[in-house]
Amino acid sequence: MSLQTFLHNLHFDIEKTNQSDWEVDWEDAPLTYKLYKDLPTIPLSLNVPLSLKEKRDLIEPNLDEIGYFLWYVYGVAQVAQTAITSGSNEMVNMMSSNRRFIPSGGGLYPNEIYLYLKSDQISSGIYHYDVARHCLVLLREGNFDSYVSRALGNRCDLPKCFGTIFISTMFWKNFFKYNNFSYRLQGLDCGVLIGQIIEMAKRFGFKAGVYYQFLDQAINHLIGINEREESVYGVIPLSNEESTLISKGNVKSKHYNSIDLSKELQTVSHKYLVKSKKIKEFPMLIKLNKVSMIESTQTFRNVDEAVDDLDERNRIILPKVGRLSYDLATICKERFSPELDFVFRPISQKNLATLLKEATASFSYINDLDGSFKNNNNRPKLYLCLYNVEGINNGAYYYDDHTHTLVQTKLGDHRMQLQYGMNAHTVNLFQVPICIHVVGNMEHIKSTHSYRGYRIQQMEAGIMVQRLLIAASALGLGGHPLLGYNVKLCDELYQLDEIGKTSLIQIPIGHYRNRPWLKGNLHS
């Protein structure tokens, strides 16, 4: 199967991408976190602040602040137990899960966080954030400003950054369950994590810039990870000064390549615990990862810019609303992904306007694709089906964030059509007043970024998902990201084929009832 066909099926016909005889071996499931063995560790403070109401002053963070930041980004936050009935005699079983503040497909968390830190309190070097023990694990000691700068194409002033985050994907962590479909999930999961990093950085007074383009092999070599098992998907420098993060002009410097850069550092290889005794092969993931890699900084590109055409269809002007003010720590703790827990209640037009405004306004972020998301129509957009929203006819719409209006696509109650398109009826869409679809280019951004463009598009969709979920939670609503739906059906509903767009992910949003489970927060 060609890579192009594989990606097409991954989006429109999932069953064709997976092996027909695939069975999940739950007894041999991997850990949801990586545990390095026999390496120096630095414990992080457990006295995390329980409130993040206000943005903090811009200061050089100490180790405690970095630990608080990492815990809110990716730490284990809750242990939950849910009662599940099964069989004709309705036997009750208890299912336990370790929850973090962000969602992940199947709760498997395929990403790992590595950091290049420079601090007076610890040795400068490359660290792994050990989620299970809430500590830093030293992987490679030294100052790597020049190395990382060149791997990013000298577009960032690394000496002025106090840290740099590397987000990797461990392929097996969700391949064991989802088979080849995990490739799509991994990009989305990585994007959700990036979205959390961006929002938490704001609350802790940091500036964060997202790099999707870097010399993959050089960065993987720096960290010491095996590219047939794991690879870095995103690089995020952290600084107190926004101007240091992304060069706004053309950087005139010599070009670098991964091979030459990697020769400057010795190879490091560390032992770590996976738990699975038998790891099956995933050749398509390795092949896609390989073909998506950037070997030279000369191939770095911006995304082509495109502007919305002024549509003559009916528009609804939404109420003017301000940005939400909330305690981000509380909102993250209360975020909930309802399944059959949705309960039908109408939504006010003001709440809908606030949800859409908040998600798109806060999505604008510093990146190496175009510098700003704001005016580029080649980036994720929001389409939505509404039912029983105050003052708005039931139907399908496009949200124009530039004019804060809804563009009418097709009137009517589309809940039956959406429910019919679900692969598994885990959510009752008849109880949902808002069903949002994050939409992107049908050809991803392959024209400028080849197969890496697919991965980038999924990551940006993940960032948008995280913004929607935070905004929904702040409004007392729940959202449940779904990939098990008929994409073609949704594309037809919004007439996306005509404009070369497609639906990337579906998020029902609405009111919900409390689920019968026991939860314990893991903080002091």
UniProtKB/TrEMBL annotation:
InterPro entries: Bacteriocin_Proc_Enz, Nitroreductase, Nitroreductase-like, SagB-type_dehydrogenase. It comes from the Bacteria. Pfam families: Nitroreductase. Residues 100-235, 381-511 form the Nitroreductase domain. This is NADH oxidase. The lineage of its organism: Bacteria, Bacillati, Bacillota, Bacilli, Bacillales.
